């Protein structure tokens, strides 16, 4: 695990290079007076969950189109994201879910990164089912195993919610298979089941656009394995404040509500384009965006 620091660093670096995407979009909306060839490229790390993708694209758009920076977006596994930030191969991330989802990563690497605090309150993780499913608690799942085909549909292996779900299987003695996948495959399984009025249980979290699309509910978790309310934090590499104070200020100021994030995710899902969706969200929410910007970039 983390003690094998050299191996993990190599893995993180390889992953960063393999997935780096240069630029968030075109810079047609930039104020030419705010562009500078001397400005460095900002590297933003994220996991490919709908919420993290939408958030990171919004911040990237602000950096590019409001402040004149170039941006590299780096989609990674959760472990590589934290490792990349700790080694300084990335500048920031905006999707640290605490205290449960990413708690282990913070225990392992928290002293090597800087926590700028909460950027969104009211998040939640758990097992999610369609509203028509006739049970309401995880404790009831074993007696209806056949209805769920003995499976819980999960996301990326190693993700915090997957580790919590493994604990749920053990603590509730569930005779189920936890199926690994991704945000996209989880949503695909959910859609297919709902289209056929079948039972399905997935690892889920809010905010997520799926709750706007379908009538869903969390199964009650009496043992609180998934915790209660989660908060989403902004994390940056050590030394960012000294190196890039105005970028640090933007990241430190960034905070929004679950409604703000939900709207950004819905736009991305409707348009099928995270870049265009981020630009639209920013144009619709200039008053809030102005509160995040350093004074010299305010309009």
Assigned CATH class of the largest domain: Alpha Beta
Instruction: Estimate the global geometry from the Cα principal axes.
Output: globular
Helix-residue proportion: 40-55%
**CATH fold name of the largest domain:** D-Maltodextrin-Binding Protein, domain 2
Can you count the helices? 12
Q: What this model shows, in words?
A:
- There is one protein chain.
- The protein is globular, with a radius of gyration of 20 Å.
- It is 41% helix and 20% strand.
- Strands 4, 5, 8, 9 and 10 form a 5-stranded antiparallel β-sheet that branches.
- β6 (151-153), α5 (160-171) and β7 form a beta-alpha-beta unit.
- By secondary structure, the protein is α+β, with helices and mostly antiparallel strands.
- It has 2 domains: 5-122 and 231-297, D-Maltodextrin-Binding Protein, domain 2; 123-218, D-Maltodextrin-Binding Protein, domain 2 (3-Layer(aba) Sandwich).
- The chain contains 12 helices and 10 strands.
- α2 crosses α10 (258-271) and α10 crosses α11 (274-284).
């Amino acid at each position: 695990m983390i003690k094998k620091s050299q191996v993990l660093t190599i893995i993180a670096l390889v992953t960063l290079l393999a997935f780096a995407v240069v630029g968030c979009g075109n810079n047609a909306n930039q104020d030419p007076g705010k562009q500078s060839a001397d400005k460095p490229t900002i590297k933003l790390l994220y996991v490919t969950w709908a919420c993290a993708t939408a958030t990171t694209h919004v911040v990237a758009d602000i950096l590019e189109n409001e402040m004149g920076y170039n941006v590299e977006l780096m989609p990674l596994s959760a472990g590589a994201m934290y490792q990349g930030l700790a080694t300084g191969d990335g500048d920031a991330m905006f999707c640290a879910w605490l205290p449960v989802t990413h708690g282990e990563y913070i225990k392992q690497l928290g002293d090597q990164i800087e926590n700028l605090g909460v950027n969104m309150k009211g998040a939640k993780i758990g097992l999610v089912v369609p509203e028509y499913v006739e049970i309401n608690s995880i404790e009831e799942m074993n007696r209806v195993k056949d209805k769920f085909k003995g499976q819980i549909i999960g996301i990326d292996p190693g993700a915090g919610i997957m580790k919590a779900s493994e604990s749920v299987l053990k603590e509730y003695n569930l005779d189920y298979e936890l199926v690994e996948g991704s945000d996209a495959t989880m949503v695909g399984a959910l859609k297919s089941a709902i289209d056929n009025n079948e039972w399905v249980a997935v690892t889920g979290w809010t905010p997520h656009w799926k709750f706007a699309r379908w009538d869903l509910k969390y199964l009650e978790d009496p043992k609180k394995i998934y915790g209660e309310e989660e908060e989403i934090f902004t994390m940056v590499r050590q030394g960012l404040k000294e190196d890039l104070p105005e970028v640090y200020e933007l990241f430190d100021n960034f905070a929004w509500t679950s409604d703000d994030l939900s709207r950004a995710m819905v736009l991305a899902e409707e348009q099928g384009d995270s870049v265009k969706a981020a630009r639209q969200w920013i144009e619709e929410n200039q008053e809030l965006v102005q509160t995040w910007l350093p004074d010299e970039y305010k309009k």
